[in-house]
Amino acid sequence: PLKVIVVPHSHSDPGWQKTIDRYFEDQTRHTLNNMVEKLVKFPKMTFIWAESVFLSLWWRDLDPGTQSTVRMLIQRGQLEIVVGSWVVPDEANPHYFALVDQMIEGHEWLRSAGLAVKPRNVWSLDPFGYSSTLPFLYQQAGYDNMVILRVHEKVKAELQNRKSFEFNWRQHWDHHNRASIFTQMMPYRLYNIKHSCGPDTSICLEFDFRKIAGESSESRASKITDENVDAKSRLLLSQYIAKNSLYKHNVVLIPIGDDFRFDRNIEWDQQYDNYQKLFDHINSQPEWNVHARFGTIQTYFNEVKASMQHMNSSTDQFFPSLSGDFFPYTDELQEYWTGYFTTRPYDKMLSRELEVNLRSAEILTSLARGIAKKAGGRSGLLDASERLTEARRDLALFQHHDGITGTEKSWVVTDYEQRLIHGLKTVAEISKEAVTYLLAKSEDTKRDTIRMSANKSWRLLSDEQAEPISVSKSDGVSVILFNSLGRQKEELVQLSINTDSVIVTDDQGRPVTSQINPVWTSDSQISSRQFELVFLARLNPVSLHTFQIKAVKQGLGSHLSFIHTLNHPPKSNKHHTRFQVRPATEKELSLENDALRATFSASTGFLQSVTTKHIGKTTRTAVDFRMYKSRNSGAYLFGPAGPAGDSEMDHSPLVRTIHGPLVSEIHVLQTLVNHTVRIYNTTGHLGSGLEITNIVDMRTQDQRELIMHFDTSIENTDGTFYTDQNGLQSIQRRHFKGVPTEANYYPFTAYGYLQDSSTRLTLAAAQPLGISSQDIGRLEVMLDRRLRYDDRRGLGEGVLDNRRTPSRFFLLVERSNRRSMRRKSSSSPLLSYPSLSVHLLVEDLRHYALQMLSEGNAAHKQNFSGFARSLPCGFHLVNLRSVLHSNGSDATLLLHRYAQTCVYGAAPCSLPSEASLSLASLFNNLRLTSASKASLSLMYDQQELKEDDGFSISMSAMDLHAYRLK
Ligand SMILES: [Zn+2]
């Protein structure tokens, strides 16, 4: 028989038109309360729930009796938790760190609430396109099946032709097909009843039985009676049969629900009574050969798998495999949802800041608690648990598909921002406490000598100029740096200080090179009381190091940088005389270190070319800024009126160059963008690229979208370029001619590149934005958008709350290294990876060293090493997450192993396909007593590691593993 599984659901956004708290009070709380009452009353009815964040808000106020009823409903299979991560995340903008973290947070909450549920199915119907990183993460976490919906109309048409709405979603790089996950794509446009029962929306509207007095509704349903039940059953069945014909088996999934449904008690009765009457009638007609009932997503997939068994097959064998992703998304042709890759870039950046600072706080807390436990003492850090949980949830919530996307109302943005800033303040406090503990000479050391210092990234985000650090000759100031990476790191530390003559010494008392740069109080005036100190710090893996800064006699100590200007009025600098300011000649309009030379335009100051010095090869890399005029752009949609132009840009902006022994840079001051390009004078990978920082202010604009544009000599004649997906993997993109500009836009969260046979140009990024290549050799990144109008997707407003917004990048030009290129016959042309240098630059952009200051230098130890050694080359320490409520371990170690190309780039590349590591020898002051491998979100224990071989693990390229440590 045809098996019809009807699944009642309510799509509940934790923030969109209202804040999460308002939605909870007004709707979600009632939906959940009604759910308990009605599922008990109607044992045949079912319900599914996706977001743990709403469950956690609700659970706090539930009496123990209701809590056990909920457990019972889950056990009976009447209620299914689908996804169960903190939110149903956006798939375009988040980094995989935050995606995994919010999944762990949701699953740990389910466990701590005693729900004893391990979600097996993903229900992700609303994100605006789908990344191929998510199926990998879900599969690694132990899920069996996924349901998705919002996919480009033409892709749906193609899958319909091939009868392939169900497929095994595999990864390009997964040659042994170990990481694929069974997926259903819903065939129609939306997840409401109108678009779910079958192809005819007007018929489906006859089967939405919600009727609330005074509420306007599209529904055309009338009550099912003995008189109409036969006719109505036949009508509904015609839709079920039509929908089932799209699938390869006799089971069909029919969701009934919409946004914030089942919040009214009466809707439960209306839907249940009418549907049950229809089911009873349908099921009592043997000649129809149909069985219809309420069920969950699990019911549906169980039936599908049973029908496979019936055919002596399995989903792996029976269904096709598909790889790749589903971007960009369009629901009406010519309207592309590619604007949200950039919308509200300030908040996207803020989310990244919380992410990296949360990670530092997690690692420091895990180490401090480990050491306190070993010493048998109390660290005082146990009370960090609640605060750390809050910060995790501040980050997790924002990964919601109307959070980081920027597609929420302006007052909801403010609510999210407050939470992100709360998270940032909280983790700063926690990190400070952990560092104070780790550097304490004894238990009774005076506390609170250490304070956090705003690092460069954070200073860029806050509008006000930070007060300079006061450095005197007698005492000096200690700067404590925390390197959170599992490898040695060179960092160019930048601090704002009040004097121009200092010496800097490291934790062994050795002087280190330093440089003093000017701080500008206006476009052309240099401050005489504030200076930027830059010094080179070499930091061990997962370690703290203290550096001393002391004032010295003028002319001694730090190198003063040289300043040259272009397009400046003469004699503009009157206030500070120690810096020599001269007009720039061609020589000063270049930046150079041992590896490369970059040249800049003598009129605009913008980058022109990059030369790789050791082979003498030059690549054109011309940068400029352009604007799209918006036609139908909104928070979701990008719809420009034509190509981007530069007519609104200054053609002879103020330009200044700064040259010094450690860093040299060029500033271009446009009205809308302050653009800085910087080169580092170091030998490592930091010196292999150019750092680009933009500060964009769109507040004077109307209906405009601003891009940074690169015109290069790369000959990607087939129109292909590459982007990352959630920072985890690369994917090939192709510029399609004959479709509009906006259809060629993609998400860009960590890196994107263009290449030809001799050269690859990579742009690495610290924040998510939209990226495109609109022509051969071209690359563009959208930086901000200011839009007056709503784009008719339910939000009801434009985007006018722009802020001064920073964005940071590294530009890297790499030459092909053909000698190391070995042909691999099995490798797909779609398979592409960044070089190891790019991976390391992305790490440096994200995980800058945490900066702290201390006045009483003698009060604490000068350094601390958490790791005894670096991780093997190509391994990344994703997190050392504190376990706050003991589940038999103390911390969770998350490790990723990069996959990288050897075709481009200078880095030697002889990494084994499988590399091993002894966890026992990794930590410096801690002894592991047990370690085990777990599924990605810790739902399942997979393998106990053996102590007698040092808790040894091994990882292959692209692996992402979780280990419980004790
Ligand atoms: Zn939604």
Key structural traits:
single chain, 966 residues, 7-stranded beta/alpha barrel, Beta-galactosidase, Chain A, domain 5, 8-stranded antiparallel β-sheet, 16 helices, binds zinc ion, mannosyl-oligosaccharide 1,3-1,6-alpha-mannosidase activity
Give an overview in words.
- With 966 residues, the protein is an alpha+beta fold.
- It folds into four domains: 2-84 and 119-326, Alpha-Beta Barrel (7-stranded beta/alpha barrel), CATH 3.20.110; 439-560 and 848-867, Golgi alpha-mannosidase II (Immunoglobulin-like, Sandwich); 561-820, Golgi alpha-mannosidase II, domain 4 (Beta-galactosidase, Chain A, domain 5, Distorted Sandwich); 871-966, Immunoglobulin-like (Sandwich), CATH 2.60.40.1360.
- Helices cover 23% and strands 29% of the residues.
- The chain is built from 16 helices and 49 strands.
- Helix 4 crosses helix 13, helix 8 crosses helix 9 (265-283) and helix 13 (384-398) runs antiparallel to helix 14 (410-438).
- Zinc ion (ZN) binds next to loops.
CATH T-level topology of the largest domain:
7-stranded beta/alpha barrel
Strand content: 25-35%
The CATH H-level superfamily of the largest domain is Glycoside hydrolase 38, N terminal domain
What ligand species are in this complex?
zinc ion
Estimate percent helicity: 10-25%
Unreliable stretches, pLDDT < 50, 5 or more residues? 820-826
Rg, rounded, reads 29 Å
Report strand order across the widest sheet. 23-22-28-29-30-31-40-37-36-33-34
Mean pLDDT: 93
Taken together, the total number of domains comes to 4
Judging from the principal axes of the Cα atoms, what is the shape?
Answer: globular
